[in-house]
Amino acid sequence: MKEFANKFYTVGVFSDVKRALDKMWHDGLTYKLIKLKFPGYVIKIIHNYLHNRTFRVRVNNTYSTNGHIQSGTPQGSSLFPSLYNIYTHDFPEHPTVSTCLFADDSAMLSQDTQLKYTLKNMKNFLDRLQDWLTHWRIAINVDKSQAIIFRKWGVIDPPPFHLTQFDDNIQWVSVVRYLGLHMDSRLTYKKHIDFLSEKFWGRIHLAISLVGRNSPLSLDNKVILYKQVLRPIITYASPVWGAAAVTHMKKIQAIQNKILRLMTNAPWYVRNDVIHYDLHMEPISSYITKLARHVFRSIKNHDNPIIRAQTMFTYPHPKLKFAYATAKWQIPLKPP
Q: Does the keyword Methyltransferase belong to this entry (predicted)?
C-alpha cells in the first residue's frame, strides 16, 4: 500500500488451481510430510487415509472395472485445507514478488517505479512457478487467470506484450476479483460497492416478506435479521474498501437508509438520523470503522510480516484517508 500511494506500478497476476480437491498428488504429499519431519505415525495415518481408494463408473446398469485413485482427497474432507497447505508450503519465492495464497486461489504481486522492470520481475517469477507446478503435478486454469496493473495516479494502459502460463496468454483486465473482492486498477472499489448493492437488493427480494411493511415480525426482530443476515452482505471485506471515496461510501449508507425506512414504514418527513437513533443503529461508516479497528488490532501479532505491516501504514495524501477519519455523521445523543 505504501508503494501504491507513492505512484509505484504494481502488477498483479491472479490464478486459480484446476480441481485442487481432486488433483493433489498423494506420493508428493507423502514426500513433503517426510521432508517436513512429521511424526511417523501421522504420516502413516494420512497415507492410509488417502491410499488404496478405488472408483468405478456406471453407465445405465453397466459398471466399469475398478480404478485406483492416486490423487485428491475425499469429497467434503475437513483435512483438505491443512493437507493442501502442506502440499503448497514450498510455493516458489522471488525477492521482488509477493505471493498471497488462500486455498486454491493465488495472487502474485510485483512492484517497481518503472513498469518494464515490474513486468520483467513478474515474468521471471511465472517461469519459475511454471516449473514448480509441472514438477508437483498442479494444473492452473490459465483461461481464468487474470493480470492487472495497479497505480493510483496517471494513465494506465495494458502493456503491448502478454504474460504467459504454459504458453497461453494471461488476460489483462481493469477489474479483478479475488476472494470475493472486486479490485479495479486504481483501487477505488467502485465496482465492488456496485456489486454489493446489486447483491443486497437481490437478497431483499427474498426477504421482503420478513422485513417489509407487512411482515408479521416485530421491529426488534427485523433489526436482528438486518444486522445478522443483510448488513454483512453490504459490509463484506469493508476493512479493506473502507478507504473508498465518500461518494462511494454514501451508496452503502443510502442502502441502509432505504431498508430501515422500509422496516419501520417511516413517513417521508422523518429524518434518517432519527430512525437510526430510535433503532439504536449506527451509521455504516461507524460500523465499518469498528470492524476495521477490530481487524487491525487482531493482526498486530500476526505471523505474516506483510499482514502485520498493514497496521503501520499512514496514507500520505491529505485528501485520501481511511473512512473512520472522514466520517462526520455520528449517532446523536438525543433526537433533534
A: no
Q: Where are the beta strands (DSSP E) in the chain?
A: 9-16, 54-55, 58-59, 62-63, 67-68, 97-102, 105-112, 146-150, 164-165, 168-169, 171-172, 175-178, 181-184
* Residue, of 175 and 77, whose pLDDT is higher: 175
Report how far residue 274's alpha carbon sits from residue 264's, in angstroms, rounded to the nearest whole number.
12
Q: pTM value?
A: 0.79
What is the torsional sign of CA 241, 246, 247, 250?
positive
- 152: which residues sit within 8 A by CB, 6+ positions away? 4, 5, 7, 186, 187
DSSP code per residue over 114-147? SHHHHHHHHHHHHHHHHHHHHHTT--B-GGG-EE
* Cα 259 from Cα 280, distance rounded (Å): 15
End-to-end Cα separation, the chain, in angstroms: 41
* Spatial contact of 144 and 16, defined as CB atoms under 8 Å apart: yes
Helix pair 246-264, 190-211: axis angle to 10 deg: 0
Tell which residue, 50, 51, 54, has the closest CA to residue 68.
Answer: 54
Query: pLDDT by residue (tens digit) across 48-97?
Result: 888 878 888 889 888 888 887 878 787 777 888 888 889 988 999 888 89
Give the pairing of strands 164-165 and 168-169.
antiparallel
Integer Cα distance of 204 and 125 in angstroms? 45
